[in-house]
Design a protein that fits this description.
Its EC number is 5.4.99.5. InterPro entries: Chorismate_II_sf, Chorismate_mutase-related, CM_dom_sf, CM_II_prokaryot, Isochorismate_pyruvate-lyase. By secondary structure, the protein is an all-alpha fold. The protein has one domain: Chorismate mutase (Chorismate Mutase Domain, subunit A), CATH 1.20.59. The protein contains 3 helices and no strands. Helix 1 packs across helix 3 and helix 2 runs antiparallel to helix 3. It is elongated and about 55 Å long.
Length: 100
């Protein structure tokens, strides 16, 4: 592992980006496991897939995390909105909910 400043060639940069992308996918996979479990728990306790207050909270958290790390909060809010919508669609299917 090298810091950006330690990289002297494009192959070094690409290797580090590929390493980070793999780590991100591991984290997304871990996150997805929780999405699946959330659908199971929601079924058990009678919750719907889409809980607007929680959606708002997750998006606020994403924006705050982006800002804390010096990233563009609008861009990462857009990414998280897509992640959330994908998760809700998955949960709706798992719960047998129809589109409203």
């Amino acid at each position: 592992m090298k810091t950006p400043a330690e990289c002297r060639t494009m192959p070094e940069i690409r290797q580090e980006i590929d390493r980070i992308d793999e780590a991100l996918m591991r984290l997304f996979s871990e996150r997805w496991g929780y999405i699946g479990r959330a659908a199971e728990i929601k079924r058990e306790i009678g919750l719907k897939a889409d809980i607007p207050a929680r959606v708002d909270e997750v998006r606020r958290n994403a924006r705050a995390n982006a800002e804390r790390h010096g990233l563009d909060p609008d861009f990462y809010d857009m990414i998280w909105e897509k992640l959330i919508r994908h998760a809700i669609a998955h949960e709706r299917a798992a719960l047998g909910e129809r589109d409203e």
